[in-house]
Amino acid sequence: MKVLFTLAAVAALIAGPALAETGVTDSEIRIGEISALSGPVASVGEAYTIGTRLAVEEINANGGINGRKVVLFVEDDGAQPGRTFPAAKKLIEQDQVFAFNGTSGSANVLAILPLLEEGNIPAIVSWAPNNLVYEDRVRPSVFVMGASYTETFDAALKYIHESAEPGDAVYGVIRQDDAFGETIEAAYDNAIENYGVKDGLRLKFKRGQTDFGAEALQLKQAGVDVVINGTIVSGTASLFKSMRQAGLEVVSTNVYTELMPASINLQKPGGYTYYVGDYVAGVAEPAGQAVIEKARKYLTDAEAEKINRYTFASYASMLIFAEAAGQCGADLTRDCYIEKLRGLDGFDTGGLTAPITFSKEEQRAGQASKVYKVDAATGEVTPVTGF
What we know:
By secondary structure, the chain is of the alpha/beta class. The protein contains 13 helices and 13 strands.
């Protein structure tokens, strides 16, 4: 009898639900995300995670992915790279996620690349598609959606040079003294080389700096007319205030954080019209409004009010995930998912990004940037180019 019970148990195990792949059962797919839900850029992290949650709610309401419910696990790293690695370890080892949709900011994703590569854990990087993620080589399980800071700034600088440049303009760059800042200065170098703009001044500042009075005076003394501005949110407001106090009249190109509604309101007192290159659609555009309408259906009104361009980045990333995972059918494995991602050709994100095409040689897509003009007085955002 004991032997018969053992045989029956074995048969049940063979016939019953089995774990086909880490994070995948007959009924669910576990997705991990690392986001800055606390700290100085919490508004960014919260908006990003809202996009992921919205996509998950929508996917599950429509039957899941081949009948499997998507389950989201989120860890907060406060935008601190030192917290990102243990957060990733927890998601991988304890929560046993199948793949990552969000990997936090530039330095943060760089901190966990070894974990992703070592475990062949798929990840779509869309929050901060830093060129350091893909520049030296293709990382088999890591896919990048969107343009690097260098590319978004380059798109804005090209537009300014061709359509909005003051006469005999002098250019200057102010950027953070780190890898993030280096990518912005790289766009400045491209503008000097490709567009022949006049190199007036290069300034660096430490992360967390709040007073830019000295830098504003240096920009004025150098006669700078076009500022490549690597400050973000409150830092930009402080720089704009200092430049206004110094009597500067400049055209500025900013990081795409400055397309967030809350940030736009912060910048209004400075009175500077600025240009931003971005790889996702704007809040007021049809693609952005479509996401907001879905959010009002699946999330709370308070959450819908927090939506910004980071929401669109994570939502588009989840559309890509659902498409590739869905193509694997019942036999969803990491290897199959990676293969299907590589096979995406012209995938439409509903206008949120440029069409998505990956390959084995090029595991990044959607890097075309649209340029937006932000009006100094009204804060109105107007697209001045397409993707």
